[in-house]
Amino acid sequence: MDAIMDLNVTSAVQFGDYTLSVFIYPTAATGVIFHYRSEDFVQHFVLWIAGGILSMEIYEGDTVVSKGAMDQPSIFVKNWYFVALIVQHMNNIELQIQRKSAPQTKSFGVKQSHTLPLNVPGQIRIGAMFERGQNQGPAPSDFVSNFQGQMICVQMYNLRFPTAYYDSALDQCNNANFPSVVLLPATPAPIITTTPRTICAHFDRRDLVFTRVQENSRLLSSINDLDTIVNTSLRRCAVYCVRNQKCVSFTVTKTAEDDKTCRLYPVYNTVYVTASSKTDLYVINVCT
């Protein structure tokens, strides 16, 4: 990179699940990918490569609350890679790398008593570190040199980003069909219909359609659910399923006039369906 870019994150809404991702084409095996810092200088995320090993550190002030690295070098010069730093439930950190083959991931915890809702507004510096501010956060000298190479499609999501469809996503980025940076609003409510319909889902799972396949039905109790949410609604249940990358079906049980219990499932098959009063079963429709 011949230049360093600073991007403003202007949202004032904090998120518990979020992803910072970018496509990189390194020409050196060591360099800072990005440094995010909150406007109050308290929260810092640093993602970098050192000898081809993807690494990260997260700070609250001067305190390192999470750090980690992939087990071995997996980023080599003059190749495109999708890399992401993912935070789930404010306390589980995941690094993700993908190049053509299946993604490589590794998870890390957070220092005891700390959580990591995204502290916004803030700034992302692409390819280098910010200068140390107000005696808080990491100092540039603590890390490696500036990034050398190319980067495209720097993005921020308010959800756990699913595995990238590497080829199609890279093509879109190279053709400038993606914005250079985006902070998505809350996941829009998916369409819920009682008329069977099939559409293609984008890789970020934001354009899915749910079809009610059977009234007064549920999956067998031997099928373990992914999550159970009480005192919710049909539409909120569908959004929960969108945000859970393993969810392909869900049931909604009426428990009161305006309250429902939602259960998310990783499977759907008619052989698993059984009768159940006041419960309806929904599935995701996507193109195959």
Description:
This protein has 288 residues and is mainly β. It folds into two domains: 5-174, Jelly Rolls; 191-285, Hepatocyte Growth Factor. 7% of the residues lie in helices and 41% in strands. It contains two helices and 19 strands. It has helices at residues 166-174, 234-243; strands spanning 5-9, 18-26, 31-38, 43-50, 53-60, 63-69, 81-88, 92-98, 104-108, 122-126, 149-157, 191-193, 209-214, 217-219, 227-232, 249-254, 260-265, 273-275, 279-285. The strands form four sheets. The chain has a six-stranded antiparallel sheet, with no helix packed on it. The relative contact order is 0.16. The model is unreliable at 177-207 (pLDDT under 50).
Task: Please describe the biggest sheet, giving its number of strands, its sense, and whether it closes into a barrel.
Answer: 6 strands, antiparallel
Q: Within the largest sheet, what's the order of strands?
A: 1-10-3-4-5-6
Question: H/E element string?
Answer: EEEEEEEEEEEHEEEEHEEEE
Q: Name the overall outline.
A: elongated
Overall CATH class of the largest domain: Mainly Beta
Distance between the termini: 39 Å
Structural class, judged by helices and strands? mainly beta
Fraction of residues in H or I helices? under 10%
Named CATH architecture of the largest domain: Sandwich
Mean pLDDT: 76
Percentage of residues in DSSP E strands: 35-45%
Catalogue the unreliable spans: 177-207
CATH fold call of the largest domain: Jelly Rolls
Give a quick summary of the entry.
This protein is mostly beta strands.
